[in-house]
Amino acid sequence: MDPQLNFDQFCLKRILMNDTHRKMIAVEGNFKGNQEPAVVVIEKYAFDEASVLNVCNAQTKFKKDLDNDIYKSFSCVPQYDENISSSKMDIIYPATNKHILKFSSQPMYFVNETEEMYQTITLPHILDNSFSLQWLYNCLEYKSEKERIVYDTASENQKDDEDNGFLLLPDLKWSGKLNELYLLAIIKKRNIKSLRDLTNDHLPLLKNILNKGSAAIYKLYGVQQSQLRTYVHYQPSFYHFHVHFTYLMHIPPGINVGKAHLLTTVINNIEMQSNYYQKATLDYVIKESDPLFNRFEEKGILHKAKLIDEISNV
Q1: How many Å apart are CA 57 and CA 70, to the nearest integer?
Q2: Which of 137, 156, 225, 306 could form a disulfide with 310 if both were Cys (CB 3.0 to 4.6 A apart)?
């Protein structure tokens, strides 16, 4: 270390940036006796196999944060690896092959899904291959995660709660830090699978989620609606309609083109045309090992691409 850079003498002035996506922070400060400013950038190293083994052992201290059906979440503090600070660990056990595929790195493809493709390919796949929703029904029936519910429309005794009500819960990916805020609004109705099912009959529900969800977040966390990214996934990870609320400065997975649809845009589209999402061609990204990819491949719509190293050897 440069002798001029004595961190015993470092004075922190302010945080310039806290990038939750890259796990990087930049701060401004100076060293005592020297008024020239210094910018310090700190970034966490990526995990490797040794890091995983240093976390997944009997010496690591675990604190259970969630236990619902096959889904569990822990805060953990490794004892052996000084390069790893406190971490968040989610466990799916027993995991199905669908769970394994969801978290596997693999080639990806864009689908331009027409109304006909949805009815003849995607919908049959959804009905045949959806994840179990027992964990979600446990939440809706207050059997699990009751203490994690941060807002429930039932608390307002609205007459149409069964049709337009929802629960607001922290997403499993939220660390609990305000600058990584991530909440899910899960509707109480059980007959809306995804964006494709929405019509003008559901506008009161969608506006209820947007307005009351945003108001609840502001009351609880002080984050105003203009600082929230409020969106729907298509394709979603599970087929019971839900809405994502994330802090605008946070960059979680699933906010890119081909996945996220802003709730305000969804509402506007339906107000223009009630059956917009039944008729529209929707673009989304699909993984090569997803069973839905196989269905598109069987119909000649998608084709497996050569890997980059295979192309370079041709």
Answers
A1: 20
A2: 306
